[in-house]
Amino acid sequence: MKNITETIVRLAASYEAVAFDVFDTLLKRDVGSPTDLFWLRGAEFAKMRTEAEAKARSSEKREVTLADIYAQPELSDWEPAQECAEELAASVANRPVLEAVRALHAQRKRVYFISDMYLPQEQIHAMLLRCGYDMLDGGFVSSSYGVQKRSGALFHRFLRETGLKAGQVLFVGDSWRADVLGAALAGIRAWHLPAPQPVQGTVEAQDCLSGALRAFVENRLSGVPYDGIALGFSVLGPLQIAYCRWIHAQRQIHKAGRIYFLARDMYLTRAVYSLLYPKEETFYLEVSRRSLCPALLTQQKYDLVAAALPRQMLSVRQIAAYCDATCPSDCAEIQLNLKEQGQGRIQEQLQTILKTLQPSDGSRQMSTYLESIGLRDGDILVDIGSGGTTQMLLESLCGIRLYGLQLSGDERLCTRFPEERAKVFLNLPSTAFRLYWAGQPILERMISQDVGPAIGYFRENGQITVHRGTQKKEPVISQLQQGALAFAREWETSVLQELDISAALAIEPFLKLVGSPEKDQLLLLGDLSVEDGGIYPLAAPKKILHYLLHPRELKKDLQLARWKIGFLARLLPLRLPYDRLYLAMKK
């Protein structure tokens, strides 16, 4: 942003006046192309509106006006006022240019706008005012004068009416044909405004919806340093909006159920949901698989304890600590590969070991906490999801049936619940599904409350309080979540607020981040750690020279990394298809 602003101010130094093109120069629109604005009123209207403008232009030798377009038979039942309102709502300031205009105005230069446009000049002026351009000295619009920039005629009219000479004016615009060559025909020097660099973490513009989403993000982040807030805005924002709207729609089916967002994973989702639906009551359920284990162990529900344990290589001592229990010293160091849980020998051995554990009295506090929450039949549990384990544990402990609304799910879900009791937002094709799970620990870290996991409960001043594990606070997590909330606030007040972002479109920026991360994204996220039965780095390789000297450490560090594609991309920052390589290895 700074470069564009400074370049315009520097180039304008010797000129008395500076004039600007309007669309894609002073203003941006929150749509992929100008005609996509018509699509917001439906495909049928968009078709008629496009045909009407084409007819109006073919029958007029002068520049057409909005009135000419709406005079066509196709639009006889439509009013132009709605189009004007949508143009106003879709307009966003091009921030680097706005900053340049402010600087030029402060230098007491005369500043104008010149546009080839069918909209009335008053409408364009209103759009400019709404976007902060309250310092302009005047404007010239082709629909008011019947001549265009591209012929040079509108520039001649501008010079005549302002009394300026061509050599006193610099013109800035994004079109070589209309702006640079058109101005040259009137003897005015013009500077071509370069197209902005693509913003990291945006969707590909494939249709009107994806084009609008891409424009919305780029209009607010273009030229802005790509920090945690920008990443949260572009990657988490669309996903959270789409997921929360889906949750809201599902809630209408189960109106009697209260809605519980599972801590820590659903912290951001609950915040976005409350922003979108402020009148709805929601609850934050501070349990984890680990915090439920003591109660399960006390009730001798060993199969459920086994399901709750992390699927890692763990010693009996670690399993006991996870369950807030003690174990016999003679078996404390026995190692179990819980990734192979479900295989006969491992399952039998685990069951035998669980029966030797002595639970603490923490199970009583766990039960008291659940009683105070008052979960009941038909309540809704919102979770990031995989196999629906937490829902299964809660149902067993409380003797109830819940409705699970999960962001994602794996093959275990359909074996544990009927479809109507465990629904999944993200139903992805196989390749996207595997890529999502390759990056799921990143997503969980980004959207979770930045505190340690619930590991137990204790009574304090007559109330049950959550006992949390330790976790280092990471400032970038707060920034990411601020960015997602900023997206939600802006989307809900934009011209696009009624559009439904599909699940596939909502997850696209995240899948791009996981599979083809940009350098800034790697720097922001790579050094984070995640809790998964232990503390693991996301993607923090050592220097390549270190691995050349200690090759065995490379395999170890890659195994520990929870974002292996990111690990490889940081280790060897080359344009290699790490996502395809990783997925091929997983096969």
Hey, roughly how much beta strand do the residues contain? 5-15%
Strand order of the largest sheet: 5-4-1-6-7
**Overall number of strands:** 20
Please give the count of helices: 28
CATH superfamily of the largest domain: HAD superfamily/HAD-like
| Total of domains | 4
What CATH architecture of the largest domain do you see? 3-Layer(aba) Sandwich
Query: Quick one: biggest sheet?
Result: 5 strands, parallel
Structural class by sheet pairing and helices: alpha/beta
Low-pLDDT sequence parts? none
CATH topology of the largest domain: Rossmann fold
Overall geometric form: elongated
Distance between the termini: 44 Å
Summed over residues and divided by their number, the pLDDT gives a mean of: 93
Helix content: 40-55%
- The CATH class of the largest domain turns out to be Alpha Beta
Helices, strands, pairings?
Elements: H1 2-11, E1 17-20, E2 27-29, H2 36-39, H3 43-59, H4 66-70, H5 80-90, E3 91-93, H6 95-106, E4 110-115, H7 121-130, E5 138-141, H8 142-145, H9 153-162, E6 169-173, H10 176-185, E7 189-192, H11 208-221, H12 228-253, E8 259-262, H13 267-276, E9 283-285, H14 289-298, H15 302-308, E10 313-315, H16 316-322, E11 325-326, E12 335-337, H17 344-356, E13 358-359, H18 362-373, E14 380-383, H19 389-398, E15 403-406, H20 413-416, E16 422-424, H21 430-447, E17 454-460, E18 463-468, H22 475-492, H23 503-515, H24 519-525, E19 529-531, E20 535-537, H25 544-549, H26 551-560, H27 564-571, H28 578-586
Parallel strand pairs: 1-4, 1-6, 4-5, 6-7, 8-9, 8-14, 14-15, 15-16
Antiparallel strand pairs: 2-3, 10-12, 11-13, 17-18, 19-20
Helix pairs in contact: 1-6, 5-7, 12-13, 12-22, 12-23, 13-22, 14-15, 14-18, 14-19, 15-17, 21-23
